[in-house]
Batch of 2 targets.
Target 1
Amino acid sequence: MARFFIGFLIVQAVLFGAELTPWVQQWFVIPWTNTLAAISADIVKLFDSQVIADGKVLQSARNGFAVSIEAGCNGVEATIVLVAAMLAFPATWQRKLGGLAIGVVAVQGLNVVRVISLFYLGQWRQDAFEFAHQYVWQALIMLDVLVIWLLWVRTLPRAGPEPVPA
Amino acid sequence: MRATSDTSLGGFVLRVAAWLVPAFVVWYLIAPILAWPIALLTDAVTRLGFADIVRSVEQDGYRITIVSTLKATIATVENPARGMVSVDLNTRLYSFGFPMLAALTLAARQRRAWRTLALGYVILLPFVTWGIVAEFLKHVVFDTTASVAAQAGFGAVQR
């Protein structure tokens, strides 16, 4: 348990530190955020053609309301927490990589829901947008990470008792 | 006939989701009370670590204002600097983990849940304080004018 917790903290420190560097921002975080905005816009366009994605900004052509996907809203931090939890937990690399592939998609899937819901909440009521943006969705995304990690842990084979030498 | 168990992960997640709503409501309403220890801890931390740039820490409801010793403008004979830089901080921004902790703890249906909740609150306090103090420092170093940052000991290269 202590080994897992220390490993979890170390991997997080390394990844959060890397996230702050200009190189990672330029080559990973910004393209990731722009892709998230584009995917959100593509989904919204299925039922609302009046939406435009420009870089990390999602805008309504109808009323001009726009949301800009900033750090903390692009799901990168939540993904880092999930990656750290899976890498630090004792499992085979095959299990870890499989869990990460599904887990990252699941976190980002909910994050797309967050972006789209905030886009419409903001057009409806500013105070509801602020509450959901600053508090509720932050908690829900972290809860999502916890649930994904718990589900993944449950798929791992239980460690049996040590074989007794004959 | 098989006995059913409510210890499934799905059941737990549903209970967490159900508890999350009242937990958020209660947390939002009692935020000024929850912020009181955060203000005390912030005051203690800034006195210990940043006594040279922090004059006082004041609580107003769920908000904390850190009043610095830094002057807001460059003083000249014609324009004497009188205002001090103060940073208004929202404790709710850093404590949304409290309702999540409450929902998780109550959904786990363990004995002594309230004791666990109180213990969790105490354990989370330093992390919330960390966020508050870090935002204050970020504001002083990066979000103010170069002259204010220079008073805090940060030059242009460090910004």
Note: Residues 1-5 of chain B have pLDDT under 50 and may be disordered.
Target 2
Amino acid sequence: MQTFKSEAIAPGIRQIYVPADRFKTAELSVSMALPLRGDTAGANAAAVYLLSRSCEAYPDYQKLSAKLAQLYGAHIGAQVMKVGEAQVMKLSLTAIHDKFALDDTRISQEGVALLLELLFHPCLEDGQLRAGDVQREKRLLVEHIQSEENEKRVYALRRLEAEMFQGEAYGVNRLGTVEQAEALTRREVTAAWRDMLEHSQVTVTLVGSADAGCIAKQVKEAFAGVKRDPIARIETQFVPRAGDVRRVEERLDVNQGKLVLGFRVDMEPEDGKTPAMRSTVDMFGGGPYSLLFQNVREKMSLCYYCSAMYVRAKSALLVQCGCENENMETAIQEIENQLQSLRDGGFQDKDFQASKIGMTDTLRSVSDSPDALEAWYAGQLLDRELKAPEEAAEQNEAVSREEIAACANRITLDTIYMLKSTEKGEGDAQ
Amino acid sequence: MNIKEIRSGSLDEKYYEIDHDTGLKIYVMPKENYSTTYAIFGTKYGSIDTSFRRKGQGEFTTVPEGIAHFLEHKLFESEELDAFERYAETGASANAYTSFDRTCYLFSCSGNFAASLEILLDFVQNPYFTKETVEKEQGIIGQEIRMYEDVASWMVLFNLLRALYHEHPVRIDIAGTVESIADITDELLYACYHTFYHLNNMVLCVAGDVDVDEVVRICDNYLKPAAPMEIERNLIQEPRDICRDKAEYSLAVSVPVFALGFKEACEKPEPSLRDIIETNIMLECVAGRTSQLYHRLLDAGLINTAFSSEYFTGNGYESIIFDGESREPERVAEEIKKEIRRLKQVKLQENIFESARRKLYGHEIMSYNNIEELANEIVSAHFSGYGLFDVVEMYRSVTLEDVNSRLGRMLDERYSALSVVRSQNDN
């Protein structure tokens, strides 16, 4: 069964089509990748959010919202992602099939045209994005960055990234900083928009049953109107091994501390062994069969959650843990012990089988959700070769015990970030 | 046993409703070309059920706050392998949740469905609690409670509910408090279990890559017949008025988080599907993305795109909540109230109503992509006494007059309260 089609439809523009008539929607996204840089991250982010709220045909957000409601709640979304050291700005559309319309509205066709209109024809004044729009977007971006910080689990993860990847592009927040957002000018945001259209690596992803050929044509024509000079492939700096372990400690008014450990993974993103590495990370801190869950959480009750995440595109591994201040040192020690035990092959066959079967199950379930499918391919934006989830599931099946130990030996601890709670009794309801 | 096929021509979907001989209601919704299956086994028992008795028995039993959630955690354990270890052998990813009015156990899988369903039916029907395992869980849940104390959106909601409600147990945290869960014992857990985990009070729903006969066959083998039983819930009479109109909490947040709630007169135990849909359309008209208010607040810099509204309702409680992030929560609250006053006078217009209706109808169609959402919606529908396909039909039949008349009756600012979570530095 062919699960997806991928083809270059113009220089620097790739289309991925995942046909699926089981869904009642069509999802189209245009993802624009540029190198992640501290000085442009904020402007790029502000630009794509701004684009999602108005255009010449619907010059304010309220009019656009009314149009989307009329298209049966079609959804236009803007998103900024970090894939390796690329910053990816995405505009997307989700719309129900025409056959479910209560009248004869041609929902998908109008939706696609609207998405392209937003991307290519924002409201301009004197050749620049409107001052009011930029002003609003600056404020929203500041609050977006701050609101991520409100969620302490995310905050701790971002802080670890900033510390561990200092001097590497990956350390840059995909939304930029609050200070940068506040200082953005009309000129910068307008330039960011033009830069995206002219220079980005574009991926158009379509999931659902729609006329992919017709959409490819519409997209191609739209991009033909700009002077395209796409950048070459975006490379991510590969740091195979950690040096001395860095420790960073911070105190905040929180009830429960957070602990994040960052590891380097000595394996490039498209290495043939990445399925084994994925499996290794799952054995380390994936499901309930994993070493971290069984030991750090269950046996030693050191934390409420303790899990590992593989960042394939940056060759890194991050362990996150919700942990009381007094348990942190023991938890760090135990996480390191468990990594050692993985290296020594000190895990049970039944747990390895459980990890395998669980991962295969998860990979196979990707194809039942348009969002999961979209995200699956988005995670491979920098890859030369795309893989379907089914293919990854097959590769997962083939991983051996020996490969797990070998992979674990390619993981080294780089940075420890501790978010500790300040003295108790500072935050009570009145 | 009675198996009924329920079809929707307009949606091109169908599901089966089964009255199993054991007293359990079962729903099966096969979805063509899906590779996963999602199963959910739920009981109408949540955090608000803190006082109850079996019909015909003497006194009401009152149990510690948070016990339904505690029970959910404990049920995964058995004398031998716990349920997670058993699922590990089938590859299913399993979970459970407890809300105000239900507890559900679920799994999704892309293979070994029969074995996973057997595990689900087996562990939920076979409780095993001891003094030791209860004590161990008190530590783990204590940490979970503490974790939520740092989640601004959680704290802002429960502080609001405590401001709106005097007596109704919706005002208590679903997980209880570190103090209340300390009073939980194995005997109390068994008492709750034997009352609420009764097949007459439960529902099973399976959606996705599934065959109805297979589900029935497994149920025939694994379900234990139950004698009919009726539960009486002792809901304390909740006064119409609110406790206080403000709640403040301090947490390290960069942007203050707020929730403005309107306590509604709860005239019947639970709202009908019509009540829910009319109210959702009304809220979209008042404060959704298609409303004037939303854009006015956004343009004035008073809210960001996290702003939303919700019809928050269940057995014996009904309120409307507007929540979001703002540097000036008090001003937002005033603006919302002002707009409600205005709209009550001028009434909602046809075009706004039609936009909102279409939008929510479209979102309902979108939910059919997702088997997890579908299965959960079937369970909700079952506990509330309507059918899944009724939802789409209801969107077709609601009128502007109905919604305007609702707007006239609801959202009375005399019964509103504002809850805010902000950083100490902002106070």
Note: The CA atoms of residues 368 and 374 of chain B lie 6 Å apart.
